[in-house]
Design brief:
Length: about 250
Amino acid sequence: MPVVFVHGNPETDAIWGPLVDALGRDDVVRLSPPGFGSPLPDDFPATYLAYRDWLEDALERIDGPIDLVGHDWGGGHVVNVVMHRPELVRSWASDVLGLFDPEYVWHDLAQVWQTEGAGEELVDTMLGGTIEDRAAQLAALGIPLDIAADIAAAQGPDMGRAILLLYRSARQPAVAEAGRELEKAAARPGLSILATEDPYVGTEELRRRAAARAGARTEVLDGLGHWWMLQDPASGAAALTRFWETLG
């Protein structure tokens, strides 16, 4: 009964290391979306629906039943999968359910990436320079330096191209329209991870409202931010384990 983790932007699967250690399980699979720690094929469109299809294909190759966990855009891919093909998983967890509320407004960085010209400039600033430069930027956001260095080593033009294509495919009202199907996610048990200090994924009200529509329970990680799995992996592991224990 594997646990499958999917990360987001601008990350690699290194973000899951401390959480996997805290879980103490040997049945963990970490999937890397194209461009985010794995190669970005020239013909991969890198839209949010293309990533949904990529994840569905990857899950079909894993012996289940699968407990699927996503963070950041990985959490978005998870929700898109369970709205489309819930039979691929036993359960799901995401920390970005607020994105699918009709009142969600993209955060400032996303809006820059979605803007022609300005997005390219920001990506060049983020992903240019040396590995040490990029690691320092990530560490300033609260990512431990050793993990930041692992992520920085994988950043480059492919990730930049993926960021721009993904966010531009998800300009509103695209994600709000996708969220019209949110009730379909209730076909499988779901968990909304609500890190109270995460500034990127909508207000607590939006996240709770989306969770209710998706039939998901909510676990509050009080005082933790976007990278909750790095700030307090023990609390994250406990929240996930409590959820999985309800599944029988």
